[in-house]
Amino acid sequence: DYANRVPVIQGAKYDVSIAPTKDDQDSWYMHLTIKTITKGDEGDYYCHAENNFGNDTQPVSVRIRNIPSINNVTQCCIEQNVSSSCQDACSFFLDIDAVIDKPECINDFHKLMKCAADGSDHRSCCAHNGVERLCLDWCRGEPLYTPDSKVCLLSHTKRIMSCFREGRDRLPGPPVNVRIEKLDSTSVVVRWDPPQKNPHTVEMYRVFWRQYGVRIPPLKNDSRATSLRITGLKEGVTYECVVKAGNTRGTSVLTDPVKFVMDDKYTVILPATSNDHSQGLMIVGVMLMLVVVVAMVTAAVWLVRTKVLLGRKSSGGVAFENPSYLREVNMDHIQISHSDVPPVVQNGIGNSTTSHAGWKHEPLHVPSQTEVAPSLYEELKLGQDGAGFKRLKP
C-alpha cells in the first residue's frame, strides 16, 4: 500500500464479512467487526475495492465515546420516599406529565425534581428559558421554601424539565470521595475523585472552603486536576470544604461538606453531620430548660401546700391559684437564642431550612436579588470568573 496502511487480518480481534445487497446483485456490503474495542483501536479504517474496471477506497473513522452513566430514577424515588401514588413519574427518565395533574403529588414535587436534576445544576438553562428566580432552586434539585411553589409548578415545570433533558448528557455530576490530607501546620491538600455522571464532560473543578460558623463569604479556587492545595489555615480552627465540577455549559451541585480541624500534629476530620450534631445539642438544651421549668413549678406547688398544711396563709401570702404567679414560669415567655447558628441563605435570600447541607443554601451560586434582578441571565453566562465555568458567583 502506497500510504503504508496496515491490512486488517481476519482472526480473533477482527471479523471481515462480505454479503450481496438485496436490491442490486452487482453490489456488495463489507462488514468489519472489531471485538473488545479499546482506546488503541481508534483511528481511520479504509474499505478498498477493485475489479477489472477500476478501484475505489472509502475511509471510516472510529472514535470511542464515553457513555454517560444511567440515572436510576426509580431507585432515587424510593430513596426520597416518594409516595406510591406518585411513583408513576419514576420511569427510566422522569415523566412529570404522569403526575402533574395529581393534587396529592404536589408535596412530592421537590423530591421528583431532585431525582430529575441528577446531581447537576441546571439554573443557567432555566434562567435563559425564562424561569423565575423564586423557582430556580428546583433547577438544581433543591426544595422551594416559598408559598409560590404552586406558581412554579403551574408556570415553569415544563421549562425546567426541558432543561433537565437538555443537560442530561452535557453536565457533570458532583465529585465523589472528597478527602483532606495534611501538608504542614497551615496547609492541606483537598483530593477528590471524578464524578460518576458524565466524567468526560468535566473541564474544571471549583473548591470552596471557609471557617465553620463564621459569617463571611467562602474562599474559592479552581483546578483542572482532582486535587487542590489550600494554604494559610489557622491552627485549632474548624474549616469546611465543598467541591463542584463544571464545564462551559454549567456545573454540578456541591458535594457534601467535609469538616476538618488544623492541629500541630495531625488534621482531625470531622463528620459531615456536625450540623445535625449541633442541632441535637440545641434540642438537648431545650429539654434541659423544660426540666428546670417543671422543677420550678413542682417546687412552687410543694411550698404552697406546705404552708397550707402548717396553717392558714397570712394576708400577705400569694395563693398558688393566683394567675399572676403562674405567669412567671409560663413557657410562652421562654426564648431560645439562635445567635450561634449561622444564617442559611438561599439564592441570596434569607430563608429558613432544615437541610443539614447548609452549603447548598449558602450564597455560593447566585448573588443577592438586589444585585441581579435586572439581568439574571447575565450572571450565569460565560464570564471571567474561572476558566471553563459559567460565571459562578458565590
From TrEMBL:
Q: What keywords does the record list, in alphabetical order?
A: Disulfide bond, Membrane, Repeat, Transmembrane, Transmembrane helix
What stretches pass through the bilayer? 281-304
Kindly give the SMART domains that the UniProt entry links to this protein. Answer: FN3 (SM00060), IG (SM00409)
**Alphabetized InterPro entries for the sequence:** DB (IPR002602), FN3_dom (IPR003961), FN3_sf (IPR036116), Ig-like_dom_sf (IPR036179), Ig-like_fold (IPR013783), Ig_I-set (IPR013098), Ig_sub (IPR003599)
**Could you confirm whether the keyword Transmembrane helix appears in this record?**
yes
Q: Does the keyword Electron transport apply?
A: no
All copies of the Fibronectin type-III domain together span 174-265
**GO annotation terms (biological process):** anatomical structure morphogenesis; cell differentiation; cell-cell adhesion
Gene Ontology CC entries for this record: membrane
Query: Record's Pfam families?
Result: DB, fn3, I-set
Q: Which PANTHER family match?
A: CONTACTIN, PROTEIN SIDEKICK
Name this protein carries in UniProt: Fibronectin type-III domain-containing protein
The organism is: Homalodisca liturata
